[in-house]
Automatic annotation (TrEMBL):
Organism: Seriola lalandi dorsalis
The protein, known as: Tetraspanin
Transmembrane segments: 12-34, 54-72, 84-106, 204-231
Cystine pairs: C145-C171
Pfam families cross-referenced by the UniProt entry: Tetraspanin (PF00335)
């Protein structure tokens, strides 16, 4: 068998076999991104930020559906099947590049968007509402206090109506010793939530972008392999050559 044909078939078979694994990984990444945003939805008001995650999940579904097609078309050297498989790979490749572009664009907007939405949410903190639960969860999970730092609570409605104290969710440990007074900084988490949440979301997007980039590179070589097999097969008398020949 021609070395180019053998190598191209091997690449395509490998690509077909990892379609399911790739789909599972991308589905996990997309779900993880959505879950990360869902935990802090009180602070993220722009729904367009979930577009990349939705694209990733859509890609994973396509991968599961068309993995078998690529495998059968490669073994049989079906020109029609390989052409259709090429179009599928190209569409997924384009979608992955789109997701990367959206990720790059939004990464630069995370800090500004978060600061604006968090300032409004922290102002609405009253100890009972939905915003209160979101703020408490955020401060407890990230071990932070306030937007930029714990002094951001000064001047808020909660601070002035509760004897100049911050919420107990700012405390390092839920003990009776911590009352939320600012003269007890050793008992409080003094770092702000906005810097910590920004780093967390950037880490999530960085992980997602690396995964997408890796699969995009595989798709690129897959498209080249389809071209090689199609061209070589067209120049042979026989249109069928099994992989084990």
């Amino acid at each position: 068998m021609d070395c180019g044909i053998f190598t191209s078939k091997t690449i395509l078979l490998f690509l077909s076999l990892i379609f399911w694994a790739a789909g599972a990984v991308l589905a996990y990444v997309g779900a993880y991104v959505i879950k990360s945003y869902d935990n802090f939805d009180s602070f993220i008001q722009d729904k367009y930020t979930l577009v990349p995650a939705a694209i990733i999940i859509g890609i994973s579904v396509v991968m599961f559906l068309f993995g078998l097609l690529g495998c059968c078309s490669t073994i049989r050297e079906s020109k029609f099947g390989l052409s259709f498989f090429f179009l599928i790979i190209m569409a997924i490749f384009a979608a992955e590049i789109t997701a990367l572009v959206f990720s790059f664009i939004y990464q630069g907007q995370i800090s500004g968007d978060l600061e604006r939405s968090m300032n409004g949410t922290f102002e609405k903190y009253d100890g009972q509402g939905t915003e209160t639960k979101g703020v408490d969860y955020l401060q407890q999970q990230l071990q932070c206090c306030g937007v930029k730092n714990y002094t951001n609570w000064i001047g808020t409605a909660w601070y002035t109506s509760h004897n100049n104290t911050v919420p107990v969710s700012c405390c390092k440990n839920s003990t009776a010793q911590c009352t939320g007074r600012l003269d007890q900084p050793d008992l409080l988490n003094v770092e702000g939530c906005e810097p910590k949440l920004t780093r967390l979301l950037q880490d999530v997007w960085g992980y997602a972008m690396l995964v997408i980039l890796g699969f995009a590179i595989i798709k690129f070589f897959g498209m080249l392999s389809v071209c090689v097999i199609t061209c070589k097969s067209g120049s042979r008398r026989s249109g069928y050559q099994p992989l084990y020949a």
